[in-house]
Design brief:
about 190 residues; alpha+beta
């Protein structure tokens, strides 16, 4: 797990947090099951680096100033402005390391499908994300799917055929198509002519 990210308790709330943002400070909150919520703040650059490096579903530690132990958290919600996508607020969920958590993680296709190289097929990704459940320490950043078994036009790969990492349960229905091979656009137009 990465080194703890430093946060400070925050007493400024409401519309007054706009001043914090102008000073390069991002407001945030930490909450969890059976825990009182705690308003905190962190440097904007630290928050941006945290999200770029770990994303939403990764277990990280935050060290609240004045507390002896860091808190294990995941980023639960990100508030951003619409156009420049500037961070406005983060919600951290403090996890119980002995309880299962759920997250949506991206699907990444790996390898080369023989039908693409041999038959000029088009590899189409059917699922961008899947919902998974695991202990916080074993939550993967993404689900890798090998496409080497897709050897002919029309072949498809169902989620039920994908092996999840140890300790991870996939909750998305197994009959979902992860990837398929279709005719390329050039072949489709030639057939139409």
């Amino acid at each position: 797990m990465p080194d703890p990210y430093p946060v400070d308790p925050r007493s400024v709330t409401g519309k007054a947090v706009a001043r914090l943002r102008r000073e390069g400070i991002l407001p945030a909150v930490i909450y969890g099951r059976g825990l009182p919520s705690l308003s905190v703040q962190m440097k904007y650059m630290d928050a941006r680096d945290l999200l770029n490096e770990h994303g939403k579903s990764t277990l990280i530690n935050v060290q609240v100033a004045g507390e002896a132990q860091p808190r294990p958290v995941v980023v639960c919600q990100i508030e951003q402005t619409p156009v420049p996508r500037a961070l406005q607020h983060l919600d951290f969920y403090q996890v119980d390391l002995s309880r299962l958590i759920r997250a949506h993680i991206p699907v990444i296709l790996k390898g080369t499908a023989p039908a693409v190289a041999r038959w000029g097929g088009l590899l189409v990704q059917g699922l961008e994300h899947v919902e998974v459940e695991s202990l916080p320490q074993t939550m993967p950043l993404h689900l890798e799917v090998q496409v080497a078994s897709l050897g002919a036009i029309g072949d498809h790969l169902l989620l039920s055929a994908v092996r999840a990492p140890a300790g991870v349960k996939v909750l998305t229905p197994g009959d979902s198509v992860v990837a398929s091979i279709q005719h390329s656009a050039a072949e489709s137009s030639e057939a139409a002519e």
